[in-house]
Amino acid sequence: xxxxLSNPDNPTGFVAALRKHFFATKLDAVISLxxxxxxxxxxxxxxxxxxxxxxxxxxxRDQCTYEAGACWAVxxxxxxxxxxxxxxxAEQWRSTLACFVIIATMVLSCVPxxxxxxxxxxLWVGGFTVFVLLMRGGFWNMPLxxxxxxxxxxxxxxxxxxxFVIGMPLAxxxxxxxxxxxxxxxxxxxxIIDFVRSLPLLTILFAAAVVVxxxxxxxxxxxxxxRVVVAFAVFFAAYQAEIIRAGMQSTSAxxxxxxxxxxxxxxxxxxxxxxxxxxRNTLPSTINQAVITFKETxxxxxxxxxxxxxxxxxxxxxxxxxxQYVEVYVFLAFIYFIFVFGLSRYGAWLETRMRLGHG
Amino acid sequence: xxQLLASRRFRRAAIQTSFILLVVLVVYGLVVTSxxxxxxxxxxxxxxxxxxxxxxxxNFSVIEVSARSTYSRIIFAGLLNTMLVxxxxxxxxxxxxxxxxxxRVSSNTLMKIVGTTYxxxxxxxxxxLQVFFWYAVLTHLPGPKxxxxxxxxxxxxxxxxxxxxxxxxxxxxxxxALAVVAAGLWLWLSRERLSAVxxxxxxxxxxxxxxxxxxxxxxxxxxxxxxxxxxxxLRIAGGVTLKPEMTALVIGLVLFGAAYIGEIIRGGLISxxxxxLEAGRSLGLSTFQINRLILVPLALRASLPSxxxxxVWLMKATTVGLAVGFPDYFAVISTSINxxxxxxxxxxxxxxxxxxxxxxxxxxxxxxxDRIKIKGRS
Lengths: 359, 378
Hints:
The complex is a heterodimer.
Chain A: H1 14-22, H2 26-52, H3 63-66, H4 73-84, H5 92-108, H6 119-136, H7 152-178, H8 183-197, H9 201-215, H10 224-250, H11 253-261, H12 266-281, H13 283-296, H14 308-317, H15 325-355
Helix pairs in contact in A: 4-7, 4-14, 5-6, 5-7, 6-7, 7-8, 7-10, 7-14, 8-10, 9-10, 10-12, 10-13, 11-12, 13-15, 14-15
Chain B: H1 2-41, H2 71-105, H3 109-123, H4 127-139, E1 148-150, E2 154-157, E3 160-163, H5 172-189, H6 196-218, E4 230-232, E5 235-237, E6 240-242, H7 244-271, H8 274-282, H9 287-317, H10 329-340, H11 343-372
Antiparallel strand pairs in B: 1-2, 2-3, 3-6, 4-5
Helix pairs in contact in B: 2-3, 2-7, 2-9, 2-10, 3-7, 4-7, 5-6, 7-9, 8-9, 9-11, 10-11
């Protein structure tokens, strides 16, 4: 139980390592044995449930009701609903392809080769456009699928990437406005950012979905998905703006003064000097914000969209599979986990890399 | 030169004036449109509706409410629900978080593995999903007749978890909460004036006396003081019922929040300079003294700012109670909007409520931070 205090002599060898890690003191030995037993019991329980006693293919209908293990047949039966929502069956290949395109965009933007103020936006705008075109269709042999029919993982990925594509430029704008030397603008944006940050995301999405139709002229309303995505993007931008602003503050003031002394235009100062350094300095926080945003896409469920969380709930909403909720939720958790864990591991890798001075 | 200065000044003034004009114009436009829409729907503006009765009840409240309650009372009940869930969540998530942090900095590899696995699993799955999951688990428990009976002390069924309890007078929880707040104020105001024994004794004693009074007032003659759950016909009587809605919400938020809090506290613990611990040891302090006098204060100082952010975040996250139909502040206001149509007024209340709540947390945490930070350095 005691905290690690440095061990001056560092014995090697398997037995020594075993002793050091598990049996350093009597208390340690007891803890190790108790925890070891608990871990073995838990892991065996999970393996039994998820694999050994599980049913992967259904031979008859009520097989799942009296078996002890997991009934993964629910995923086979409801998998398409979970992954695609109400997207037309014949067109689901487009949804799959669109998901691959946007995932490829995410992966590519993690490669240092693309880290420039011009390449990264180009990559995202390109990837996002292809994604939307594929999902929407309405040209060549692809029938039009309106956004009301989008659902499942594709809608989650759409919301996530749209929030990023809209929110990132907004965040830069907010950050620049907040540190502007025009007092009115700096104060107003400071107020807006702090206001948005003190509200739960759900209230903002709710306002966009329900209240905007009441207070905005019809021409400016757009459809509900658009309103919600824009509101989400503003929410994201309020947080990301503070991250970028911190990054800008961490670049030395001398650089900015030098640029002004050289007569660089403001735009060039921002794009060539401030932003590259601000982004580089704050990459781990940005990744962390992306992680949070990905998880928070599930909140969109509450304003009536059929994204991953909602389609998962729909899969067990019928009496037929109502008792297989554990399997479905585990499956959903696993999908979220892959994205979120992958992103956060990448963030951790970046942090080590930057500490080593490659940043 | 003067011309340049003048033009620069002019440009700055022009940009700012046009910005203000734009804001005024947008706000004016929104007000005009909303007025027109509201008039078209025949809704009276203003906060007069708060004194009307709602006509719909909420399924959980610490104060007495019914379908005949006014909007203001139901909204207040919702605010209390949010605060209740928020504080339960912060309290238990902090406890579990401390435990997790100790696991992760422990020298025992198995404990480290357990701590790390926990954090990675619970942090990387959306809290909404976790709340849905726990709600499904709780509502799939057997009915009251087949309830799991834990040694006649607690009963688990799809109606909720029933624990033994001491019945209080109606609304007793509110008075108890007020007593706890008063005790906190007492501790705060009496600092550096009275001895620790008097301060903490007074606080605990005061809360205790209030509790006894509330229990005596709420006591029905002929019933035992400690009420245990028991099956009566088709339902479970006695005890204190934790309804599945609130329980699922609190469990989900606690398990999720603890993973984050654990990481923050772990960060605080490992940020403590090891030389200071060794200095303590060479001064002959015991391990307990080193932990109490050096490690914990320094770790707390290091982790408090992040902890404040996390607490505020968790308070905001209570809005996912909507997933399980728990009538928190947001859910109550959202239903009110549906029922009364007083959208703008209710939205203002909603946002105002959260801002007050969050700034209160931040205020308390910053006050603690000011108090414990090393004096003379910043």
